[in-house]
Fold this protein.
Amino acid sequence: QFRNQYDSDVTVWSPQGRLHQVEYAMEAVKLGTATVGLKNKDTAVLVALCKPTSELSVSQRKIIPIDNHLGISIAGITADARVLSRYLRSECLNYKHSYDSTYPVSRLITNLGNKMQTTTQRYDRRPYGVGLLVAGYDEKGPHIYQVTPSATFYNCKANSIGSRSQSARTYLERNLNSFLNCSDDDIICHGIQAIHGSLPTDEHQSKENSPQFNITVAIVGKNQPFKILTEKENEKYQKMAKEKGAPAGPPRTDDDDDPRPSAPDQPDAGPRDPQVVVTTEQR
């Protein structure tokens, strides 16, 4: 039996300079259903695909409100997301109590990244196995942030994470230039059209009739507190998105959602981490 001797602990470096446990946590994000975040000049929107784990269960909540000016959408381990959402709520309440104003989004995300980074540096902790898309609005305007289990965060114009999210990112890239001047209704429709591409091929043919196609939409912006839309409002925007046309490009059928170029761990790109054979003595 072969076993990598460098992935047993989060504090152990491989000869290539990699932390395998952190990379494994980032793979957990791809197991969650897709979620999309995008913004125009005054509004940030989150659109999440809610898929039940079985036919006997209801879908878990994918969008979590944090404060009047902030909310998150998750992909990965929901239990880890609850811990992080509780931390964000506590930070926002403490800041509002001390300064009587809303927490600046960029500073809050920086503190969140610092909290998540400590788990990648201690042997008695594990990385959070969840990716976040954060939508917020402050005096600098609307914000969309992506936060990864490696504690890296990105300020985005639009992004998508989760299973089969590459198709959604392709749609966002093709229409990115039109987002800034879109109306609130149009930016929500763009988010719904982007999330369509993350459905499997068989479900993509009949989205509206598919029991798996259940979305949640949240919006926050200028003079608009963070709000999760109702089912009736979701149906209205889905009809509007359908009238505007189908998303560009067919859906992907593979699960390779990593947009990064080929890393050195490929067989033909350099030396690999040494493998050892682990044997046990029978007594």
